Amino acid sequence: xxxxxxxxxxxxxxxxxxxxxxxxxxxxxxxxxxxxxxxxxxxxxxxxxxxxxxxxxxxxxxxxxxxxxxxxxxxxxxxxxxxxxxxxxxxxxxxxxxxxxxxxxxxxxxxxxxxxxxxxxxxxxxxxxxxxxxx
Length: 135
Description:
It contains 2 helices and 10 strands, in the order E-E-E-E-E-E-E-E-E-E-H-H. It is α+β, with helices and mostly antiparallel strands. It is elongated, with a radius of gyration of 16 Å.
């Protein structure tokens, strides 16, 4: 069994986090899943949601956008479009994004192609607000 579990959270812009953790919880597209050291290898798509990990018995949370996760016995690499730590989320900006998305959705029919874009924007804003409340 692996001695340590290393977590890397990477976006197109930067390495968001790189360190040894005790456990990781990832919002997979097929549902949330947890990883401990010694986990079986897997690849998973990541959905918009809350990614959390425990390090030194302290929980840290990130609001993440879509991407992929690669898990091995000793390492988890999460490649996502965006990742914001709970205490770094701009709550006012997230509220404005939620209001814009709700306004767009109210004006569009469900058949409109832009409705799904607005729905996804709303989900991202709600996730950011939810995660920021756990900082």
